[in-house]
Amino acid sequence: MSTAWSRLIIKSWQRPMDDLIYGYAVPGIITILEILAIVVPLLVCVAYLTLAERKVLAAMQLRKGPNVVGPFGLLQPLADGLKLLMKETIIPAGANRMLFVAAPMMTFSLALVAWAVIPVSKGVVLSNLNVGILYLFAISSLGVYGIIVAGWASNSKYAFLGALRSAAQMVSYEVSIGFVMITVLLCVGSLNLSDIVMAQANGFLGVSWLPGWFAIGPLFPMFIIFFISGLAETNRSPFDLPEGESELVGGYFTEYSSMTFALFYLGEYANMILVAGMTTILFLGGWLAPFGLDFIPGFIWFALKVAFMLFCTLWVRATFPRFRYDQLMRLGWKVFLPFSLIWLILTAGLLVATGSVPHGGV
What we know:
Layout: H1 2-60, H2 76-86, H3 97-113, H4 132-153, H5 157-188, H6 193-198, H7 220-233, H8 245-248, H9 258-283, H10 298-319, H11 325-353
Helix pairs in contact: 1-9, 1-10, 2-9, 3-4, 3-9, 4-5, 5-7, 5-11, 7-9, 9-10
């Protein structure tokens, strides 16, 4: 009798344990591993993008760049990270301590969270949302809060002016980015990022081996607007007005040091990679191989296209001087906004007139 009771008790405990393990624990561990598979390579790319920028700028200015720490200077990012880690985190006496520390964490984490919906190859995506493009737009819009909070919590006029500049700049160019995204969605008929990539799988002008990317078709002007607006959105040169050292010392992170400064620094470079990834998805065919080179894995093509867009970002920094603030606002509101709106209307009209509206319900 005791043996039968013990078996019954074991069975009654075994089923909830199986449900717990296979229903929650195993999927949870798999999700954590998938997140690490995205975040760890991304952090490595962020670290070495700082080195790549210094090397590219040095080559364009006929200098050598970092070449002391490690072979060819490859350990320079590790040395920079160790240096910042060992410095003291100084919080100003009049600052809001909690918000002062939370602001850089918010900026850095938002840059990582956005990668949850970006497909790096066919079927290789953490969360294949049907509204992935809206998720990306929402996350990118939240980035301004970290900068505003940092400027306000620092209790410094220079930092606060830099934060206000950044808020106005990011909001101004997000409008144009929104119109560009809507134009792409009209041509695809879906908010899913994988669907947007596959819509570019057909060859250009019906030629199968030519890339059918949106960037080399009628949406080329929108591609240029998206790229330039991405520079302004990430506060990169020539639109790095929020941190203009000539009038604002260091902008919104004037009072930051040590790892809090490092999080802002890394967040900026993570946002650069994110914008390059969004440009690749929307206009450069994502993981799709050009010229029939399908034997090369898709994620390699995705990485190469992202690297090309990042190189263009660094190239712009080495070429153009910083804009004045009135020039920045004029470009955003008087040039990009009306042009993107007109091109959106023309695209919609052309799709309706030719009966080419996608069946996704646009």
